[in-house]
Structure formats: C-alpha cells, structure tokens
Amino acid sequence: MSPKTPSKLEKILRAGHLAVTSECGPPRGSDASHIVHKAELIKQHVDAINITDNQTSVCRLCSLAACIRLKLMGLEPVLQMVVRDRNRVALQSDILGAASFDIHNLLCLSGDHQRFGDSAQGQNVFDLDSMQLLQTVRRMRDEGKFLGGDAIQRPPAMFVGAAANPFADPFEIRVPRLAKKVAAGAEFIQTQCIYNLDKFEQWMEMVRDRGLHEKIFILAGVTPLKSAGMARYMKSKVPGMDVPDDVVKRMAGTPKDKQAEEGITICVETIQRLKAVKGVAGFHVMAIEWEERVPEIVERAGLYPRPMLQ
Amino acid sequence: MIVADRKPIEEIIEQVKDLRSVLVLGCNECVTVCEAGGKKEVGVLASALRMYFLQQGREVNVGERTLERQCDTEYLEEIRDSIDHYEAVVSLACGVGIQFTAERYPSKAVFPGVNTCFMGAALERGVWAERCQGCGSCILATTGAVCPVARCAKRLFNGPCGGSTAGKCEISKDVDCAWQLIVDRLKALGRLEDFETLCPIKDWSTDRAGGPRKVIREDLRS
Amino acid sequence: MRLNYPSSVRIIRVPCTGKVDVLHILRCFERGADGVYVVGCREGDCHYQSGNFRAKKRVEQAQQLLDRIGIGGQRVRMCNLSSSDAPLFVRFAEEMHAAVLAAGPNPIRAARAAQKKATASSGMGLHP
C-alpha cells in the first residue's frame, strides 16, 4: 500500500523497514532548549520523536508547541494527544494547528487520570475517548470533514496511531481491543514497554491469528532499566506493567555500579529477540531522562544507520 | 436515590452563628435513607446547635421539622405559617430540596446542612456508591447494564484504558474498573462479541454540558 | 452485695444499649447533665448480638460532636461488663464520677443560669 500521508514514519513502515521511534518529555516551564537538546541527542538514531502530552497529568509545555519546534528543526515529530484535557472542539482545532505546521504523526491516547498529577482538584474532559478520537482524525483526513459535518479547508494529512498494552487486564480482551482500534482507524501502535517477552509473544500470536499484524504496524515498546530499584518499582507500583521475577533477579544480582549497563544490555537483547517476531514492525524506545543512551541502544541492536528516504 | 453526607458542624455554625432563631428542616426521603438529613439527624443537629448557642451565652430558638420531601410545593406549604418564627433555615435535604425551599420562601435565608454527592445505591448499611450521572441518554442496553459514564473514572465508551489492574481502576484499589465489570457482564450474558462493537461518539447535549435541563410532559400538564 | 457507689449517678434502664441513640445522649447534656456513660454487656456477649457495638459507635459520634461544640467529649464514655459483675459496676461509677469532676460542671448549666438571671432582672424592671 502506498503511503497516505507525507509522514516519514509511514513511508519507512510501508517500505518494509523496521522503524525506530523514541520519546521526549517536555520541560515544566517555557524553556524549549531542554527539548531541543534531547532531540539533538537522538535525531540520527530514530525515525520520529514522540512528545508526551502532560503525562501523568503533570503540567508541562504542551506537546503541540514542542512538536512545532522539532518540525522547525527539520525533525519528524509524533504529536501525542490525550482526551483527558480537551473537548472535541479543542481536539479538532489542535489537529489543524499541528497540520498547519505539516506535522504528520498523531498518537491518540486516553491519558492518566488527573489524580496522579499536580492538578488533582481539576476537572477532566473525556468528551471523546481515544477510539472516538481515532475515528475523528480519520474522518478529518479521509473525508475532509469536521465532526459536525462542515468541510475542512486543507484537511490534515495525519498518520494516526494508538497505544496498546499487551499486559493489562483483562487479558482476554487485549486482542479484541486491538481489533477495535484497527476498526476505529488506527494505522500504527506503540506498545507499553515490554519485559515479559513470553507473554508478549503470546499476544502477538493471537494478533497474527486474527490477521491484525497485516492491518496495522506494531512498534514494540522498550525501556532500559536503570537499577534494580527501578525494576522493583515498575513491577509493583505501575499499573499495567509486567516485569517478570527473573528480570528483577538479574538486575538485583548485578553490582550496583553496573546495574545501569545491565539494564541497557537487557533492552538490547529484548530488541534483538523481538526483531524475529513476525508482525513486529519496529521499536519505540522510551528512555525518559536517559535519552543520551538511545543512540547506543539503537546501534547495539543493529538498527543503525536509519534508512534514508527520497 | 440521591446520596448526601452531613456537613461538618463547624461549617453550619459559621453560617448561623449570629442568628437569634433558626429552623432545622429535614426530609423524609433520600436523605433519611442515607441517614444524613432525616428526623433523627435533624434532632441531633438541633440539639448540638442549642448547646453551642447556650455556651456562647445566647438562647437561640432552634426549631425542628421534617417534611415528607422538600422537592414538592405541597409539602413545603406545610411550613407557610411557622417559618415566620425563624430568621433562617438550615435544610438537610439534598441540593434540590434546599433550593426549592428557598424558591418557596425567597425572603428567608436557606443554608445547606448536607453535601449532596451523587445518585447511587446502598452496598451495605453505611456504604453508598455512585451509579448514575444523569447523562440524559441511557446506553445501559449496550453495556450489560453497567454504566461507563458513572462508573468509569474516565467515562470511556470503548474501554478499558491501560490502567485497569486486577479488575480495579487505576485511581484506587477501592474502585472497580467499570470496563472489567462490563466484560464480565457481557460474558455472563453470552454477548462478549458485543465488546468489539465501537460505541458511537456521545451526544452530551442532554447532559449537564447542554445547560440546565427540564423534562416536560405535555400529556401530564393541565 | 450492698456495695456503695457515688450518689451522683442516675441510672436509666434500657433493654439493650443498642437502643441508646446519639440524640438521647445529646439531650442529657442539653438538660444539664455533667456526664453520660453507657454501660453494656461485654463485647461478644450482647444478648441481642451487636447492640453494644452499635452503642459504642454512637458514643464515639457523640464524643466527637461534643468536642466540636465545646462541651467536651470526655464527658461521655462506653463501658462493658457482665451483668453479675457488681464490683466492676462500682468501679465504673467511681471512675466516671472522677472524670466528670475533672471536666468540671457542664457549661450549659452555667449558661442557663445566666440566662434566667438576665431575663429575671429585666422582668423586675430594675434598670441601672
């Protein structure tokens, strides 16, 4: 299938390459140099860079502004949009804002509940849910229409994706849920970070049984562990995260000053094993506040240099 | 029913501390059932207020009355004569009753004695949980009679989100994941395949978002 | 056994302490009582299963309310004993008596007395 948008990420995926994306968290202030610096660190090693959207409900510089800055630097941003903070008017409006700067990648998310962040007393919106946002973006792009029915002047050409968590409960509907996202219009997926490779491969098998791997590009999420403490924390304190005991043991069994290196190695090994899994179309490397190690991970995993396109 | 909870007495005292007379007005319906504003609670509040005022060195006339409900004019009329003996009213009815009382007696200050919380049901004595948000266009038929608007913290129509863990919502272990409940219910009804049907975008104009609402039944009007 | 207990105690009999409501406790204080204690069966031995547990919760409610309006929650307490335990009954009475003495007279009584004086003197028409 030929690409439907000018998105570089879409082009790479449709050409059959394994794509590599990463993400940056914006600063808690208006100093954009923070984002610029992080993007500079990784730009040669990834095809596109996600900018998170007030993640964990903590107020930060908005994803849209940071994506514009990346675009002006000549990089490929992925705009993340949660439906927690904006109604359908603002969502459609921000999509047009992004499109006016020729941002071509959008990730549609629910968003963590505001209870977790610095605005626990605030309202939340949830006018649309993430699936309905997918439908909305596809309608804006493919039919050139707003939700209300009016025509859009220069419709947005967005390559649109969603998140998926192969490890969340209830397990029995994790594949039907992916099918639903495909039906809603998602064209790519970035998964929650993977430590339980057996369970992930089990999920992928069920995905393949339904032929979903041919309808959507699945980018496997990976996050390098910095320490045994981080492994334990993610195992017990983060909802929807599956960190097997032997991963924790491996980290804990390593001397403290070598644990970070071990974490990077585990991450590289994860990518190498997942490269062989049919239906995995690429990798989403999430190394928040550790972006300087992304180039090393990408290189050791044999994914460097990134493909150059016309 | 409408579930309410008693306001801390300090808040109520703050409103009435300078008065010379006050009527504590209860309601015999929802707030009685959730033990927040019925005849008993009226008695306790009135007694506590009398003692507070006496301690302040003032004898304040604290009246007690519980109406069948405060959201119907025929019952509010019952205090038409007696209300003039009081400077103000502390109403223990839900927010509806408090306002309706004030509408009936616009020159009388009416203060809330309870916090009105939600539409819900009793799980056991002393525990009430929210079940309905009054969105105005009920979709319970598609979700096996579990409401995602009232019971999902993110009111997702195509849930669950990635935070659902062991049947509980990401916001608290004490909150069930509504979408886990929906999946379980659809399974029990033999309709799990309905889960994949995409729920259309909600029309929120019948909800609070559309503005204060009315229901008008022409066939019932005289 | 003909044991003595303080004459300050007035007994109000109920079939089970579960019958005692928060309102009953408050009304005692409204009428000038300096202290109220609720004496029920030992926990687990309630003849009506859980009446004494309900009473305990209501006593706690009354304590909180009395603290918040300035009367003092230490004036009300819950005691548990077996109906044949006369020495314990006496001990509770003595302890309550001591607690109430320590708390001082119910401020309501002084307030009511002051009220009466105020209305009485103005009624006599004696203006300063």
Structure write-up:
The complex is a heterotrimer of chains A (310), B (222) and C (128). Chain A has 310 residues and is of the alpha/beta class. Chain A has a single domain, classed as TIM Barrel. Chain A contains 11 helices and 8 strands. In chain A, strands 1-2-3-4-5-6-7-8 form an 8-stranded parallel β-barrel, surrounded by 7 helices. The longest helix of chain A has 17 residues, at 259-275. The model of chain A has no long low-confidence stretch (mean pLDDT 95). Chain B has 2 domains: 2-118, 3-Layer(aba) Sandwich (Rossmann fold); 133-210, no CATH class. Chain B has helices spanning 9-16, 30-33, 39-55, 73-76, 95-104, 148-151, 178-188, and strands at residues 2-6, 21-27, 61-67, 88-91, 109-112, 114-124, 127-132, 168-169, 172-176. In chain B, the strands form 3 sheets. In chain B, strands 3-2-4-5 form a 4-stranded parallel β-sheet, sandwiched between helices. The longest helix of chain B has 17 residues, at 39-55. The two termini of chain B are 28 Å apart. With 128 residues, chain C is mainly alpha-helical. Chain C has one domain. Chain C is built from 4 helices and 2 strands, in the order αβαβαα. In chain C, strands 1-2 form a two-stranded parallel sheet. The longest helix of chain C is centred in the middle third of the chain and has 18 residues, at 51-68. Mean pLDDT of chain C is 89; it is low at 124-128. Chains in contact: A-B, B-C.
Secondary-structure blueprint:
The complex is a heterotrimer of chains A (310), B (222) and C (128).
Chain A: H1 8-14, E1 19-24, H2 33-42, E2 48-51, H3 63-72, E3 77-82, H4 88-100, E4 105-109, H5 130-143, E5 159-164, H6 174-184, E6 188-193, H7 197-209, E7 217-222, H8 228-237, H9 245-252, H10 259-275, E8 280-285, H11 294-300
Parallel strand pairs in A: 1-2, 1-8, 2-3, 3-4, 4-5, 5-6, 6-7, 7-8
Chain B: E1 2-6, H1 9-16, E2 21-27, H2 30-33, H3 39-55, E3 61-67, H4 73-76, E4 88-91, H5 95-104, E5 109-112, E6 114-124, E7 127-132, H6 148-151, E8 168-169, E9 172-176, H7 178-188
Chain C: H1 22-30, E1 36-40, H2 51-68, E2 76-80, H3 86-103, H4 107-123
Parallel strand pairs in C: 1-2
Helix pairs in contact in C: 1-2
